[in-house]
Automatic annotation (TrEMBL):
One of its GO terms (cellular component) is plasma membrane. It comes from the Bacteria. One of its GO terms (biological process) is lipoprotein biosynthetic process. One of its GO terms (molecular function) is antioxidant activity. SUPFAM superfamilies: Thioredoxin-like. Residues 129-267 form the Thioredoxin domain. The keyword Membrane applies. Keywords: Membrane, Redox-active center, Transmembrane, Transmembrane helix. The chain crosses the membrane at residues 16-33, 40-64, 76-98, 105-127. CDD domains: TlpA_like_family. This is Thioredoxin domain-containing protein. It comes from Ciceribacter selenitireducens ATCC BAA-1503.
Length: 273
């Protein structure tokens, strides 16, 4: 699972890498400010603010069709959706603009930026290189209890496996999107593995929300969450046709992130060859 647990807190690895990179950038800038130019500390702080805004704006522009349908999602920053390219451009331009009258300090700002970028890049590379677990070798019952479904028998089709519970607010918020996408997509299977709840409670929730969802599985012992190392709910696994993990998403997922992750599970022409 692409998440790291620190005490009671859980972070998606891509977000944790970005947070640590920003912390190093600001810390190095503050350290250099105390020894060389006091303005550098303010510059790095301003660059972080502008960089975050630019990263979000660039992401929105790239996925403008999705945001045109739901413009209020521009402010749903907790779902993720930041472009590192837009952020890097915003940070670099801010530092150049602020240091335009103090060009001697510009190399110091570049050192701060390079330090943060190095930490972000190394952590991202290491976490992406880590192999995910193999497909689980156990089966789960469907909602009616009439069939056992084994996730290691995918029949050559990619799958989206959502780990959820009715008591989980972000699970409930993202469920309509997942249900809608599951009905619309014919090229990928959707599996909704409820964690720790019984069929009566699940049916009551689905009927109360008027959700038509197939492939609801019962996981009363939270076996999938343990197998994939999910630190919390919701967690969404994107499996390739061979059952291996293409990518994962921890927390509430957005429409653009969902579509992008599904694309990573689909076989390419090279794979077909």
């Amino acid at each position: 699972m692409n998440a790291v647990t620190l005490g009671p807190l859980a972070f998606a690895t891509d977000r944790l890498a970005a947070i640590l990179g920003i912390m190093v950038f600001v810390s190095v800038g503050s350290w250099l400010a105390r020894r060389h130019d006091g303005r550098l500390g303010l510059w790095t702080t301003a660059a972080v603010v502008v960089g975050l805004i630019a990263a979000r704006a660039f992401h929105v522009l790239v996925h403008i069709d999705s945001f045109m349908d739901e413009p209020w999602r521009v402010f749903y920053v907790w779902q993720g959706g930041f472009s590192w390219i837009g952020g890097a451009i915003g940070v670099a331009l801010t530092l150049v603009f602020l240091a335009r009258e103090a060009l001697r300090a510009l190399p110091l700002a570049a050192v701060s930026l390079a330090s943060g970028a190095f930490v972000w890049f190394m952590l991202t590379t290491l976490w992406q290189a880590a192999e995910g677990p193999p497909p689980p070798r156990f089966a789960l019952a469907n909602l009616d209890g009439t069939q056992l479904v084994a996730l290691d028998e995918r029949n050559g089709r990619p799958a989206v496996v959502n780990l959820w519970a009715t008591w989980c607010p972000p699970c409930r918020r993202e469920m309509p999107l997942l249900a809608e996408t599951a009905l619309a997509r014919q090229d990928v299977d959707f599996i909704f593995a409820n964690q720790g709840e019984g069929p009566v409670k699940i049916r009551t929730y689905l009927e109360g929300e008027s959700l038509e969802i197939e492939n609801v599985l019962l996981d009363p012992m939270r076996s999938l969450a343990r197998h994939y190392g999910a630190p919390g709910l919701p967690a969404t696994l994107f499996l390739r046709p061979d059952g291996t993990v293409a990518t994962t998403h921890f927390g509430e997922i957005s429409r653009d992130a969902l579509n992008a992750a599904i694309a990573r599970t689909l076989p390419t022409e090279k794979d077909d060859d």
